DNA sequence: CAATAACCGCGA
DNA sequence: CGCGGTTATT
């Protein structure tokens, strides 16, 4: 391993090379590396399937579920134990040199750190929210490891245009169909049929006929939104097209204020306040933003003393701009400058059935007594059981330089510089 | 501004 | 019939 040759006494980083029990597979695929990471900091089982990203493949296994995501040049594979995150990346070409592989592994680690925002201490945040909010304090232990992913803005924007009037299962199918239809397969795994497709770039989705094709794939009215949004983005921000300048423009919104970025997002078709706020929170670093949908509205009304807009009759009241703002502002005031992250915890908890965990109704004057119903069959859904069993693997430890310090690699340096810049802006 | 309809497809 | 929403129209 080339990076191990470099003498870097400081910031040594320990990780584990994992040898799978199948020698044949080990020969074809790179081994898993490991990263010490308490499950309270990240729960893959919840975070990857709770409606943030819709593109993770899950390979269920009673003991050891694997999660895979196809990036532009590699497929990232993850597994998890209560104390450790296991990762590897698989590439299209068959046999990279050990040096190539080591560099790629280092890149993948940088990507992981960025995508999961691992420099943010989730446990400390949970504590802070608990101090500010008794409701959060009461349920936090049940929902550990729920953090906001830092996703690609373009992919995130299109995914959430798909989310209108929709559910996670179908959004997942639609995004999958979109990738299969509009980007060539990157690779498939040895002995497996499934092909892994990256997310298609804006230029591809802006081509003629995309709307009709997506409609035939069951996208409904969202087909036009996606096509038109892609055309707008490429037409306005991708004029000179040195490989997708429009995507870079979207990424650049990370360096603008929340209001400015939201204003830009709202210009696209199919993007209203809710979708815009999701993109702001989940891919543009605006972690104070609280997206409001009907679920969040219900939660705010029930547990945070927001008055339901005089719907004394059981009438269904639409989400007006005023209601949206009231709810979003209220929850921001409850949770503070990382309110969007707290919202994600509560929202995910709600997906798994909020009431079944015996949350108290607030004691405030605006609250009405609510009967908490114990719901059957919902509790096991959140169980971490698959992750608690011992792993069927053997480990041998090696010490290498922390790839985060590999200052002689341009791509790593760039990523790190970008991160530092981002943190500085937040602070 | 608040309220209503239309949009698409899927599941209850 | 209703949905984790947006757009267009009153």
Would you kindly provide a written description of the structure presented here, covering whatever features stand out?
- With 427 residues, the chain is α+β, with helices and mostly antiparallel strands.
- It has 18 helices and 9 strands.
- The chain has helices at 23-28, 44-47, 98-115, 122-132, 134-139, 153-161, 168-182, 202-205, 210-216, 222-237, 245-252, 258-265, 273-283, 294-303, 321-335, 339-351, 385-388, 410-426, and strands at residues 12-19, 32-36, 57-59, 66-70, 75-80, 84-90, 187-188, 195-196, 394-401.
- A 7-stranded antiparallel beta sheet has the order 3-4-5-6-2-1-9.
- Helix 15 (321-335) crosses helix 16.
- The protein starts with 11 loop residues before the first strand and ends with a helix.
- The chain binds a DNA duplex (12 and 10 nucleotides) through helix 7, helix 10, helix 13, helix 14 and helix 16.
List keywords for this structure.
disordered C terminus, 9 strands, 427 residues, single chain, alpha+beta, two-stranded antiparallel sheet, DNA-binding
């Amino acid at each position: 391993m080339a990076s191990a040759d470099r003498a870097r006494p400081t910031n040594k980083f320990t990780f584990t090379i994992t040898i799978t029990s199948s020698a044949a597979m080990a020969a074809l695929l790179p081994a898993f590396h490991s990263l010490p990471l308490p499950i309270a900091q990240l729960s893959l089982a919840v975070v990857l399937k709770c409606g943030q990203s819709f593109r993770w493949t899950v390979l269920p296994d009673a003991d050891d579920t694997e999660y895979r995501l196809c990036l532009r040049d590699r497929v990232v594979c993850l597994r998890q134990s209560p104390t450790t995150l296991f990762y590897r990346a698989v590439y299209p070409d068959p046999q990279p040199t050990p040096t190539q592989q080591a560099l790629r592994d280092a890149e993948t680690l940088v990507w992981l750190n960025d995508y999961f925002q691992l420099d943010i201490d989730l446990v400390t945040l949970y504590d802070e929210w608990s101090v500010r909010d008794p409701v959060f304090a009461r349920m936090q232990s049940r929902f550990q490891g729920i953090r906001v992913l830092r996703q690609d803005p373009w992919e995130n924007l299109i995914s959430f245009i798909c989310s209108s009037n929709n559910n996670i299962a179908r959004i997942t199918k639609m995004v999958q169909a979109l990738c299969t239809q509009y980007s060539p397969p990157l690779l498939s795994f040895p002995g497996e049929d499934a092909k892994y497709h990256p997310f298609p770039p804006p230029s591809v989705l802006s081509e003629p006929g995309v709307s009709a094709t997506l409609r035939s794939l069951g996208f409904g009215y969202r087909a036009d939104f996606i096509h038109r949004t892609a055309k707008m983005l490429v037409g306005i921000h991708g004029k000179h097209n040195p490989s997708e300048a429009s995507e870079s423009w979207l990424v650049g919104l990370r360096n603008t204020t929340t209001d400015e970025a939201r204003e830009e997002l709202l210009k696209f078709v199919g993007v209203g306040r809710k979708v815009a706020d999701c993109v702001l929170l989940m891919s543009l670093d605006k972690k104070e933003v609280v997206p409001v949908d009907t679920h969040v509205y219900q939660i705010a009304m029930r547990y945070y003393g927001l008055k339901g807009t005089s719907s004394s009759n059981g009438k269904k009241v639409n989400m007006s701009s005023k209601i949206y703002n009231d709810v979003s502002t209220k929850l921001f005031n409850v949770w503070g400058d990382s309110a969007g992250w707290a919202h994600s915890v509560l929202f995910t908890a709600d997906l798994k059935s909020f009431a079944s965990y015996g949350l108290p109704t607030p004691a405030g004057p605006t609250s009405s007594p609510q009967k908490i119903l114990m719901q059957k069959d919902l509790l096991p859904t959140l169980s971490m059981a698959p992750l608690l069993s011992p792993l069927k693997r053997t480990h041998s430890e090696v010490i290498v330089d922390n790839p985060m310090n590999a200052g002689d690699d341009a791509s790593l340096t760039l990523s790190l510089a970008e991160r530092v810049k981002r943190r500085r802006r937040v602070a």
